[in-house]
């Protein structure tokens, strides 16, 4: 149980890896994941210990069975880290009376994404560690220089964000970092003659990007679009103001006659119709970004797939060359090819270290 062989299998490292894995597993139960999501989220950083001690347990040679997936994961994680280091340019926020925000960011024209894509967002003034995913409501074709997300105030993090932007003395600038966008590879819904979209509450957000895609097709390209039927249910009448976000804040085409859109909205928690005009409580907050704030852009630029292939290939070739040199001039003279003198754990650590150095060098250069 406490044996750590110099050249063989390390039982202690295997036990440490097992405990880390059990910690990951225990927090995945719905009682923990749903009620204490942050515990679930932060506990999953134990994957670092799980992988590290797993490699020390079985040795680097046996660990090569999962090297391709692990190598690609490290590249993806490092590129996401590089992107998250930048502060993006937040231009404005539309504040609705139903505790809902639309944040509008400056976007690089070369950044393309499909409808229903998502983006992770971090606001350091609220929490430096928390990253939250939000559906992108804008369309990269209709709004080439803007990117927007809609946020419903439901948890503590979103409530703080809403309070910051809705207060009478709202801030002039808000520091925001993003990761993404990430989205579906194809827009398969374009091939249908009729689309029926059913949503409840803030679940309407993904459909905004789809509708804006059809606005672009019908106005800019003058092409025939499918019939759109949007059926949405809201708890209260104030949430009907979310439909005001259907059109972008700027650049809305004037002629929408070719767009075949039918909207059916239902209020489920009020027995009598309200007479209050909630549109009066709608306001737009214009922010003053810092000159150092950058537009949202792909971390590897417009030709990201080409650059990503270059990063993967170059970092892996560097890894093979460096490990070949280290093995030939450091490990082999000690080991004499007998596998008895050089520590198995030290060899594994060297492989991990060189792998991380190569990925960091290639990713940073790209």
From TrEMBL:
Family (UniProt): Belongs to the ferric reductase (FRE) family.
Cellular localisation: Membrane
Requisite cofactors: FAD
PANTHER family with a match to the protein in the record: FERRIC REDUCTION OXIDASE 2, NADPH OXIDASE
Molecular function in Gene Ontology: ferric-chelate reductase (NADH) activity; metal ion binding
Cross-referenced Pfam families: FAD_binding_8, NAD_binding_6
Reactions listed under catalytic activity: 2 a Fe(II)-siderophore + NAD(+) + H(+) = 2 a Fe(III)-siderophore + NADH
Keyword Nucleotide-binding: no
Residue span, FAD-binding FR-type domain: 83-188
Key words, A-Z: Electron transport, FAD, Flavoprotein, Ion transport, Iron, Membrane, Metal-binding, Oxidoreductase, Transmembrane, Transmembrane helix, Transport
EC number: 1.16.1.7
Highest taxon in the source lineage: Eukaryota
Keyword Cell membrane: no
Alphabetical list of InterPro entries matching this protein: FAD-bd_8, FAD-bd_FR_type, Fe_red_NAD-bd_6, FNR_nucleotide-bd, RBOH/FRE
SUPFAM superfamilies named among the record's database cross-references: Ferredoxin reductase-like, C-terminal NADP-linked domain
Membrane-crossing segments per the record: 12-32, 44-75, 305-327, 348-365
Membrane topology field: Multi-pass membrane protein
Name of protein: ferric-chelate reductase (NADH)
One Gene Ontology CC term in the entry: plasma membrane
């Amino acid at each position: 149980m406490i044996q750590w062989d110099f050249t063989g299998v390390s039982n202690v490292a295997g036990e440490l890896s097992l405990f880390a894995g059990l910690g990951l597993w225990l927090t995945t139960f719905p009682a923990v994941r749903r009620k204490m999501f942050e515990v679930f989220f932060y506990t999953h950083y134990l994957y670092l210990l799980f992988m590290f001690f797993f490699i020390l347990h079985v040795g680097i040679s046996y660990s090569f069975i999962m090297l391709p997936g692990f190598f690609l994961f490290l590249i993806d994680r490092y590129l996401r880290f590089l992107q998250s280091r930048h502060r993006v340019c937040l231009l404005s926020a539309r504040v609705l009376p139903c505790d809902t925000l639309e944040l509008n960011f400056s976007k690089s024209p070369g950044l393309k994404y499909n409808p229903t894509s998502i983006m992770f967002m971090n606001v350091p003034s609220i929490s430096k560690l928390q990253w939250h995913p939000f559906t992108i409501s804008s369309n990269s074709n209709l709004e080439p220089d803007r990117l927007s997300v809609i946020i419903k105030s439901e948890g503590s993090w979103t409530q703080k964000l809403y309070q910051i932007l809705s207060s009478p003395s709202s801030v002039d600038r808000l520091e925001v970092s993003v990761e993404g966008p990430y989205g579906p590879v194809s827009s398969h819904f374009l091939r249908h003659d009729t689309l029926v979209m059913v949503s409840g509450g803030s679940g309407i957000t993904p459909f905004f990007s789809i509708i804006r895609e059809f606005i672009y097709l019908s106005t800019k390209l003058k092409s025939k679009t499918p019939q759109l039927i949007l059926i949405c249910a809201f708890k209260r009448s104030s949430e009907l103001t979310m439909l005001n976000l259907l059109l972008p804040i700027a650049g809305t085409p004037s002629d929408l006659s070719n767009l075949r859109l039918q909207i059916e909205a239902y209020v489920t928690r009020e027995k009598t119709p309200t007479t209050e005009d909630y549109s009066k409580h709608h306001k737009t907050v214009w922010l003053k970004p810092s000159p150092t704030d950058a537009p949202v852009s792909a971390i590897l630029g417009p030709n990201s797939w080409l650059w990503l292939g270059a990063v993967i290939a170059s970092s892996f070739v560097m890894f093979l060359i460096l490990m070949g040199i280290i093995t030939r001039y450091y490990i082999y003279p000690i080991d004499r090819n007998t596998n008895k003198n050089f520590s198995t754990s030290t060899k594994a650590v060297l492989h991990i270290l060189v792998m991380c150095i190569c990925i960091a060098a290639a990713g940073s250069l790209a």
